[in-house]
Amino acid sequence: MKLSKRARYALRMMLVLARKPRDKDRISLAEISRITGISRRYMEQLAISLKNASLIEGATGKSGGYRLLRSADKIPIGEIVEASIGPIRIVECLDHPDGCIRSTDCECRLLYEAINQRIVGILNEYTLADLAGKDWKSKISPLLQPEK
Predict the structure, then answer these.
(1) 56: closest CA among 86, 13, 6, 9?
(2) Is 78 inside any structural domain?
(3) 61 φψ region: left (φ > 0), alpha (ψ -120 to 50), beta (else)
(4) Rounded to an integer, what distance in angstroms lies between the CA atom of residue 138 and that of residue 108?
(5) Closest residue by Cα to residue 32 from 50, 85, 75
(6) Does residue 44 contact residue 29 with C-beta atoms inside 8 Å?
(7) Where does the pLDDT of residue 103 fall: very low under 50, low under 70, confident under 90, or very high at 90 and above?
(8) Which burial class, exposed, middle or buried, applies to 23 when counting CB atoms under 10 A from its CB (0-12, 13-18, 19+)?
(9) Neighbour-count burial of 76, counting CB atoms closer than 10 A to its CB (0-12 exposed, 13-18 middle, 19+ buried)
(10) Among 17, 50, 69, 146, which one is most buried in terms of CB atoms within 10 A?
């Protein structure tokens, strides 16, 4: 499985919003684009998806821009990924078993479901606040240890 560019960019955009300076209520797309190095046009597309998922809100005008709708510690990473790319499914048959002639007797389907559940579980185990925090590496490091 490969995490799409769209999902990675959505995470970067949300990190900027989570880390915004305390004196700023909102951040413009131009500023987010400058910080992330992602084009403003792409940011506009991501903003629509993130707004539709009720993760961010935007305002126009002199003090316009974007901000998180919830605190960063209430936004699971998985919710951001799914807002940007849709449900996380490593194979199509997990959502649409009727589309596969082997779904009822597929020896691998349970394995695919287990892998998918672990991916979703890890993405939802951590929040945007975890990712934005200074101690992120210590939180994620136990997952990176080789199994014995």
Answers:
(1) 13
(2) yes
(3) left
(4) 34
(5) 50
(6) yes
(7) low
(8) exposed
(9) middle
(10) 50
pLDDT in tens, 23-67: 678 999 999 999 999 999 999 999 999 999 999 999 988 888 999
Q: Is residue 107 part of a domain?
A: yes
| pTM, entire model | 0.86
Q: Residue count of the chain, please give it.
A: 148
Positive or negative CA dihedral for 50, 52, 53, 56?
positive
Q: Which domain holds residue 12?
A: 5-143
Report residue 80 as tokens. 């951001």
Count of domains forming the chain: 1
The CATH number linked to 21 is 1.10.10.10
What is the DSSP secondary-structure string of 71-90? -GGG-BHHHHHHHHH-S--S
Question: Angle between the 29-36 and 40-52 helix axes, to the nearest 10 degrees?
Answer: 110
Q: How far apart are CA 93 and CA 80, in angstroms?
A: 23
d(CA 121, CA 89): 12
